[in-house]
Amino acid sequence: MSAIKNTRLTYYTNIKKPSSWPKYKKGMCDTCMAGCCMLIIEVTHDDLIRLKLTDAWEIENCLKDLIKRLKKLKIIKRYNSKNGKFIFGKKKSSDCIFLDNNRRCMEYKNRPEVCRNHPVIVSPKKGFCPYIPK
Ligand code: SF4
Description:
The structure is a single chain. By secondary structure, the chain is α+β, with helices and mostly antiparallel strands. Helices cover 26% and strands 8% of the residues. It is built from five helices and three strands; from the N terminus they run αβαααββα. The N terminus is likely disordered. The site of iron/sulfur cluster (SF4) has 11 residues, from loops.
């Protein structure tokens, strides 16, 4: 895992500094090692339902319990009541909790909208990405 991690990091600009990111070009994702899965992942109620982590009834009637349960499971870090979005939990490496050791999303088919739309529609810097293809 550490070899993957060291190799991976040489392929990115400062992930936490969007102003340093190069412009995104079609095809970049083909060789990327999931750098976007290290960003802050903000998901909606619908995303959680698609991931089968809850259902519409629980969201409507037991939101506090849901937040408590998902926090305990470390699936979410927090809930933002202002925009109604949940912040996904992270591993110590900053990777999303759904990223496996081969840097593949374990929930790819059901992944959140934010993941589907990065970096063209949703991004800390729209149209830019921290990945630098070699
Ligand atoms: S849900 Fe999947 S695609 Fe989205 S950040 Fe997590 S690992 Fe990456």
